[in-house]
Amino acid sequence: MLREPSSIVLSQTGGPLYQQIVNQIRERIAFAEWAPGEELPSIRQLAADLRVSVITVKRAYLELEREGVIVTQQGKGSFVTTDVEIGAQLYEEKMAGHLEQAARLGATLGMSDREIVSRLRKALDEVEDPRPVAPKTSKESQ
């Protein structure tokens, strides 16, 4: 089993429940918390643990499967894709989103591009390199 279902936390004010499930699973895969090939909780089990409808979890799993993030094997369950390119892509998308959010905030506060970049550099200098290692793509491991 992948992780304790309690690692997924839903909020009544955080948007559609299925989308919250999708986003949290994508994030865990993006940051390599959930490894390629690991089994996800069954749809019924996750629905029971989260106290949501089976349809809600099924919708989330179907979206993740459509995106190629998970694969479902009839009679066996759902698993994190073994395609490491997907994990790397999710990581890049997550990082791009955070950087875009920082840029928008800086612009909203009236900061120049140069000042935003300067603040980002300063923040990087103050951090003790807590960066998770992004999943390697097949191109990088060659």
Automatic annotation (TrEMBL):
PROSITE patterns: HTH_GNTR. Coiled coil: none annotated. Keywords: DNA-binding, Transcription, Transcription regulation. Pfam families: GntR. It comes from the Bacteria. Residues 15-83 form the HTH gntR-type domain. One of its GO terms (molecular function) is DNA binding. This is GntR family transcriptional regulator.
